Amino acid sequence: MQWRDRLAEGNTLTIICLTVAAAAAAIGLSTSISEEDAGVARLVFALVLAVPAGMLLFFSAFGLVAYFLFIPSISNDAHIFARVHSAQLVHPLTTAMVLGLLALFVYTGSIPGLVAWFGLLAVYSFQTALMVSRIRRELSSSGLEGPASSLLFLLLNLILGGELVTIAAGAKPLPPWRLNSLPPDTWVVDIRTKPEFKWNRMEAAENYPWGAGLMEAAASRPKNRPVLVTCLSGHRSPAFTIMLRRLGFTTVYNLNWGILYLILLEKGSKSSGPFGLTRSQRESNMRGKDFRGISIGYITAALLVLVCAPVERTIWPEEVPLVQQILGAVIGLGGLLLGGVSYLALGRNFRVFAAPRRSGTLVTTGVYSKVRHPMYTAVIAAIGGYALYFGSIISLPFWLACTAFYVIKAFKEEPLLLAHYRDYEEYRRRTWMFIPYVL
């Protein structure tokens, strides 16, 4: 069960989904594109798929942008949030990607693209099943039954996102910048876990982990009192928002895109009153703050390569030499393999933040016995091989920018690793940074 929980909590399957989606798009756009009229029926079917994909993309955009902004958070305990929420937060966007690619392949009539899409669907379905299983176990351990643990509801919540689900149920979505418009006596229901609640909470919030004790508390509250339900990430609160609506509460708000609330707090926009944040007493950690721009930089550059390469080849269809395609595929797949090996070598030491885990250990075995930042090398190689496969000239500056951002990040991380691990100086003297015997 432990490996399933790690897959459900982490970003591994999300990264695999994105990789398979990029491969499917590459295959679909470069092979068997229909040159004849698509026909009305095929066009209508493609539009039926594309419209909900566009809606999901729009509604999940705020949460996705906020998640990437929050990744290099200043919090010592930010890994609690990332471990529990990251995959669920991005899942509606993955749904939009799955629907959008299907619409594209239906419209173009690309049979190889459709075959690759079914591989993407298999990974996506497996990830969804793991998430639902984990959430249902959490709800069951809290003794919560009813709409919150309904299989259909959990599927809709993960696939469509909390924003659309709560709107459909008659609850009122509330963005974080409108918190001050709520009455001061609003009952604030925080359904996060105890460690998350201890980390930070709203001044007026009451904690009901995964809804434990919420039914009993609701029985003693007047039904005309406004209620705000929050879990900050937004993927757990919809279930309890709907439950409170069914219990007769007339005005129930769900805090949409709640992670943006933390961004606003950092800027001092929501730091007082009943909806201000109370942080636990802990040492402030500013080590990740300066990495925010770097993170946004390499993510943006990598996405531009993934998009521009196939689009360029579609608009200007020039034949790429077979040797170049083979070389690009070998480099790209080699990068993916190196990334997977590096991830397995790190194990629980893997972290999305720049600073190492406080309880982590220095990994010096396997691929880490040769280079100190093999995962960065893997990403650079995978993206470069992808662009080379398509023979994309437009992608070249974006790949160079992505490489530069990773190199800068690696050099900035070195002082943090030196300060955290006593053996790092000796380890650094006998290893290379990116490529053995080169750099």
From TrEMBL:
Keywords: Membrane, Transmembrane, Transmembrane helix. It holds the Pfam family PEMT. GO terms for cellular component: endomembrane system. Its main location: membrane. The keyword rRNA processing does not apply. It is found in: Endomembrane system. Signal peptide: none annotated. The keyword Transmembrane applies. The chain crosses the membrane at residues 12-31, 43-69, 89-108, 114-132, 152-171, 247-265, 296-316, 322-346, 378-408. Residues 182-266 form the Rhodanese domain. PANTHER family: BLL3993 PROTEIN. This is Rhodanese domain-containing protein. It is a multi-pass membrane protein. SUPFAM superfamilies: Rhodanese/Cell cycle control phosphatase.
